[in-house]
Amino acid sequence: MMEDNPFVGEFWLYHWMNFLLSVIAYTLLGRALLGLFVHPSSGNYVMRFFCWITDPVLKLGSYMTPPFFVEGLKPVWVAGLVLLLRFVLFLVFNNLGMVALPSGV
C-alpha cells in the first residue's frame, strides 16, 4: 500500500512542492474571501491565522505587484502568481521526467 502513496514514492519532491504551493495559494484565496466580511486587523482568530500564514507570502509577492493595486485584491494577485508557479513547476518536472502522469493522459 505504501508504494501507491505519491508523497513517499519516486516523485516525492514534485508532490511535496506542489502540495505546499497549493496550500499557500488556497490559503491566500481564503484570506481574500474572508476579507470581504472581516477586516484583517480585527480580533477574529480565523482572520489572524490567515494573516499569520499569508503575510510572509504577501510580502514576497509585493515585489511583483503593481503599485496601483487595491490592497484587498493583493492576496488574489499573489495567489494567481503562486498558481502560475505551480504550473511552471509541473512543466519543469514533467520535462525532467519526474512526474508520473496517469496512463489515460
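The above is record 1. Record 2 follows with the same two-line structure.
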Amino acid sequence: MPSPEKFDSTTPFCLDTLEFHQWLEYVLIARLRELIALEAELPAAMMTHTYAQEKYRGQWGKYRKLIGILQELDALITLESH
C-alpha cells in the first residue's frame, strides 16, 4: 500500500506519484467497490484500457490479458450508464 501522500496527486491516474498497477488496485478498484457497496452511481464512462495500451506499448504480449479485462470493464461501465 502506497503512503497516504501518494494519493494527493492532481494528475490523471496519479501518474506523478503511483505506478499504474498501484492506481488500478488502490484507486480505481477501491473506488468502484465503494460505489457498488453504497449502491451509488458508477462513472458515466471509462477509458482505462487506452491508457494501459499506451503504458504498456511494446509489451502488449505480456499485458494483453490485463488490457483486455480493462477494455471489458470500460465497456460494461459505459454501457450501464446509458
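The chain has a mean pLDDT of 89.
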